Amino acid sequence: MKGQLDNDMGKVLVDEGVLAKYAGSAAVECFGVVGMASVNMKDGIVQLLKRDNIRHGVEVRIQDNILYIAMHIIVAYGVSILTVAENLVDNVKYKVEEFTGMEVGKIIVCVEDVKVVN
Length: 118
What we know:
Blueprint: E1 3-7, E2 10-14, H1 16-28, E3 33-40, E4 45-48, E5 58-63, E6 66-76, H2 81-100, E7 103-115
Parallel strand pairs: 6-7
Antiparallel strand pairs: 1-2, 3-4, 3-6, 5-6
């Protein structure tokens, strides 16, 4: 399902892939986030995604024109996971709502790995 914005001039449909890419880009800007993760369910292997595949670490669901986002992230070793997650939720919610004009109902943060960063 695509996100839909209505105004007096017509309709704008926004694909979930676009929303996922934008949310992922907003997430990796946050302090303590090393990157987005891709999880291979079969093998249980976590991979750090490159910048051009960032949307694969984000799941977007749209219900009644409200966005529900699940983010799979890798955090830096030594930072507070709770603080990073709270910052990420605030940042992504603000940026996605400003970008789309749609409401973000819930953001779920899944910490898939921890990496030591120099």
